[in-house]
Amino acid sequence: MKVRLTHILMLIVSLCISVGFYFMVRYLLRDLEAQTFQATEEMMVDSAYRMASQLEYQLGARDLNVENCAKILSGKQPELLDLAKIYHLEKERVGLQYYVTDQAGCVIFDSGVSTRVGHDYSLQNDVFKTLRGEYGARSSRLNADDDCSSVLYIAAPVRRADEVIGVLSVYKAQRDVMPFITQRRRVIIKVCIIVAIGTVTFVGAVFFLLYRPIGRLTDYAQAVIDGQRPSLPPLGRGREVNTLGLALRDMRETLEGREYAKNYVQTLTHELKSPLSAIRAASELLEEEMPVHHRQRFMSAIQMEVDRSEAILSRLQQLSVIEGLSELERHDEVRVDELVRNLVREYQVLFEQQQLSLRIKVDDAVVSGDPFLLRSTVQNLFDNAYKYAPPSSVVDVEVLSNVDSVVLSVRNEGEPIPEYAVERIFDRFYSAHGEGVEKGSGLGLALVKEAVMLHHGQVAYDYDDGRHVFTLQLPR
What we know:
Elements: H1 5-59, H2 66-73, E1 84-86, E2 89-91, E3 96-102, E4 107-110, H3 125-131, E5 137-141, E6 150-160, E7 163-173, H4 174-225, H5 239-286, H6 292-323, E8 332-335, H7 336-353, E9 357-362, E10 366-369, H8 371-388, E11 394-401, E12 405-413, H9 419-422, H10 444-454, E13 458-464, E14 467-475
Parallel strand pairs: 9-11
Antiparallel strand pairs: 1-2, 3-4, 3-7, 5-6, 6-7, 8-10, 11-12, 12-14, 13-14
Helix pairs in contact: 1-4, 4-5, 5-6, 6-10, 7-8, 8-10
């Protein structure tokens, strides 16, 4: 298949969609974790400040120390939940914990890890920055080698009047958030796959339902321009493309009909001018007194020109019928081997009269086509060999059956055809005869070419080792 601009454009569009889709998915997946932790951090900020405010209220004028914090904060901690479902994920325990440090950064209470009490956290970012009046937050790994062991800490100041007397930090393990990230990642991948399938399906549908039929119509139009006789290709079920295809076919038939009628009249007039002139001259001479043998000679000349005119009209009528067909009307099973053997029997006497020998080599071969047209095609090759082969020569007829085609060839001896005539040997009304050979109608090989084209085959001529070779290749 030829590469067209539409194919290149489709390839470019597909590449752009693929690259854009890749970067979009990559961005969504890469940014998903950051966005999730940002949302978690925002919630933890609210929780830290609300809990710090509650601690300030309950603490009142008392000092922020271990005893007072233990009295205020050491209540029953909810450890288990009754299988609460959040976005289809089961949550069995409370993941948000907190600890309190005094003004010096020493831990005085921890709801999750009691062993932290008494430790100095004054250099931890959440405590250190909050005591300095800044936003305190940090992320620390419990295991330095495990990326998923990080814990996010968010701190809020505990004030009395305008003085910061301590820090309350809430913390949450990354593992508590990861199920939501994993689920969201699966949803994104699933949606992207569905969108990708839809996009590919759409692009494929556009290609197969629109560009592919248009490409076939382009090949069809190009074949018509090249002088071939192609059938209208299958265009699928698209209404618009089928309407365009039928319009092209009708336009082709209309234009070919007008051009053919013009050429038909011109060629017929040209070819009949010579025999009519000869008949007219002979008839004028017959009006005069002449010996009987001269009169018989002129009568024979008139009869010969009449026969020639009838042959031209008959062949031209056959050719007009074939050229008027855009495709075969019959698709019968035709045995080429039997067809050739029957013609050999019919032509045997004529060939013997010309002292010609027939040699045949025929394989069993079957093609699909019009029996009458195929017989007429082979018959014209036989006529051509019978007319132009020199006496006491051999005519070879061969039929070979291949996997996908049947090849028929007819070889006969004779003088070579001039090079300028080889390209026109299958043209209508062109006869490349030599000296001393009766001129033919120039329609036989034109009939052969048209019939073979209707069968989607090929016809070729070659001159090899003193022999004319005509080869037909027909699809099985």
